[in-house]
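Page 47, continued from p. 46.
Same chain as before, 275 aa.
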Amino acid sequence: MHPMLTIAVKAARRAGSIINQASRNLDILNVSRKSHSDFVSEVDGAAEEAIIKVLLDAYPTHSILAEESGNRGDPRKSDYQWIIDPLDGTTNFLHGFPKYAVSIALLHRGILSQAVVYDPVSNELFTASRGRGAYLNDQRIRVSKRAQLADSLIGTGIPFRDLSFLEAYLGMFKDIIPKTAGIRRPGSAALDLAYVAAGRYDGFWEIGLSPWDIAAGCLLILEAGGMVSDLEGNENYMKSGQVVAGNPKIFVQLLQIIAPHLTPQLIAANKQSAS
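Result:
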């Protein structure tokens, strides 16, 4: 395992321990609302600080982009930036719904190089290093081999934070449903993407995500032989938060169904994020 990935795994497990301990006492947690349907708990903050401490103890010159605390250090002065979501799926966690994860990724000169998605409930650890493949608990994983969308299970996420593109999303949803074997929406993009990498889903799409939601999961998919893009098939997904992913054949079919629903507003948002 790459030394930087080893440190990221240590950080993810440290956060997972905090999350698991807190899951036994959900009724006494302090919770606040960041925006509509977007919650943050004291556990998010504690897990994030634990991750950052492990990372900066090992690599004090690296910069950080974390969901709750934002930027630490100047990414222009370091070749390395860690992207952290300490608890992806906070709403699930607060309801005792066991689908949430710790997500940690490392950018090296702007390129995804290391990834960890850790499910503390199931103790499933998804890892990847650029050029070295993707793994689940030390076993190599690959995207599925299904070739037909009709046989495929597809993951998605409803854009609940920003409802600006809800109609466009629902149009995509309506057209994809009858062409698949099923659609799932558990509520943690990090886990959804990890499941694509492991072949549990054949494809995935979502609108309105943040870099910390998707960075680690996207590298997992790429290293597992899959494909990732924005809704237009380009590589702007990290900035736009518009993501389509899957095994190569299902990925192409999803893009074809999504294309007619790309409103001028969606295209403009994608272009604006790229500039």
